[in-house]
Amino acid sequence: MTDAAAVARHADLTAATLDLAIAADHRDGVLDHLTVLLAASRLFMDFPLPDETEPAPVFRP
Amino acid sequence: MTGSLTAAEIAAAVRARQVTAGAIVTAALDRIAAGDGAVNAFTAVLADTARAHAARVDGILAGGGDPGPLAGVPFAVKNLFDVAGVVTVAGSRIHAERPPAARDATAVAALRRAGAVLVGALNMDEYAYGFSTENCHAGPTRNPHDRARIAGGSSGGAGAAVAAGFVPLALGTDTNGSIRVPAALCGVFGLKPTFGRVSRAGVVPLAWSLDHVGPLARSVRDLALAFDALQGPDATDPVCTERGPEPCAPELGRPLDGLRLAVAGDHFARLATADALGALDRVRIALGVTREVVIPEARRARAAAMVVTACEGAAYHLDDLRARARDFDPMTRDRFLAGALLPAALYTRAQRFRAWYRARVLEVFRDVDVVLAPATPYPAPAIGAPRTTTVGGVEVLTRAHLGVFTQPLSFIGLPVLAVPAAGAGPLPLGVQLVAAPFQERALFRVAARLEADGVVAAPVAR
């Protein structure tokens, strides 16, 4: 998700789903940080992992 | 009495009854009263309880008892540690409305059991989400070496209080570098232990799967004495190890024979100033290190750490983000809100990448015991510095980039000891000593050698 309009659409829909009202004067800052995080995530989302790799945290009953 | 005495010197003098804990604590309170107006390290000074605890230490000694290895040592804690009877504000306006803590955090209680005397709570980035301690509620903490500059963060008050000589010892937390960055920028020693080695019970979290507790001090021995008092199992922290303590103070002075040392290349040699890399080089040369190793995919690890932190931090604060986002510090609010909007697939992938990366890095540590890396890419930026800066010809986020070398290491819980290494200019810099999980003793051996040889030092800032 690199397109600014797509990031904004995602932010608005997800915020609504979470019942998270983002004030108009906070929105640009939130979108800036979301864009930074999404760009960073490409570094590991595009990295191939073996199927057997499980998430790091282990629940111990 | 100056603030240059180490914790070890204070404890020895108090235990020998050459000075009272009361006199030591009064001197610390006087230093704070005289000097903290210009530094802003403290958000609360607990003078009455400190004097009462000091009197208790003196009473134990008068009765022939042993108050512990840190007898009478004044210490202070980042204000996200619970202290009985004190509100745990965590750098925020929101938590400041909560009732006082009912009991001490496990780490605070451990230092008190060792005879140390808590004198106050310290400034930090709101909810530990930052590297600069430019807190909008409490004001910025100023670097004692140059008060126009940041102290680093998020344990900025801890770094500054120790560097200024207000206290010889402080407790911080480190999720992505929040002990190591302020230690480096303030020119003191800081230890981020192995994940789970020191209990986090009674500490307001930033990111559950990445948070660590550790000490900052002006000498390697003080850091070891504090860590030895802190380490060990705690059933009230679900990630705390069941391994018994492995004392590090007895390791100081042991020769480095048999330790395999290397310097980290690749990611850790890029996007840093010549000054930062020069500080690392001086430490490398002093230790005679010629070998280089590559921590694989460290850049991707840093990115994954950013996403895990954002997601977990937002999850913890979601109710307040919904109800009262305007009460957050603007420096953290927009980032927490952005974290709440990240898809679950990113978080899960980041945690899977973490498992893969951990396995690869542990392979590196089969052939090496201690790896050297820079702590920060540059010395302390100015308070209020522009959002971006250019380093190595690349524009980076001034504050976020301070964690470029710390985040890939804390992401998989490796123990790291940050040592203060003078830069070419007047500002301090730091070098990270990194080991495999639970190998803190090797780190202390190397740090003690560097300190004994005069390569690293943490004099009180003047």
Write the layout of secondary structure elements.
The complex is a heterodimer of chains A (61) and B (462).
Chain A: H1 4-17, H2 24-45
Chain B: H1 7-15, H2 21-39, E1 42-45, H3 47-62, E2 74-78, H4 106-113, E3 117-122, E4 134-135, E5 139-140, E6 142-143, E7 146-150, H5 156-163, E8 169-174, H6 180-186, E9 189-192, E10 212-217, H7 220-230, E11 261-264, H8 274-286, E12 292-293, H9 298-324, H10 330-340, H11 344-364, E13 370-374, E14 388-391, E15 394-397, H12 407-410, E16 416-422, E17 428-434, H13 440-452
Parallel strand pairs in B: 2-3, 2-8, 11-12, 11-13
Antiparallel strand pairs in B: 1-3, 4-5, 6-7, 8-10, 9-10, 9-16, 13-17, 14-15, 16-17
**DSSP strand count of chain A:** 0
- Helix fraction of chain A, binned, reads 55-70%
Helicity level of chain B, as a percent range? 25-40%
Identify the quaternary structure here.
Answer: heterodimer
Largest sheet of chain A: none
Instruction: Give the strand line-up of the largest sheet of chain B.
Output: 1-3-2-8-10-9-16-17-13-11-12
Which strand-content bin applies to the residues of chain A?
Answer: under 5%
The proportion of strand residues of chain B reads: 15-25%
Spans of chain B of 5+ residues with little confidence (pLDDT < 50)? Answer: none
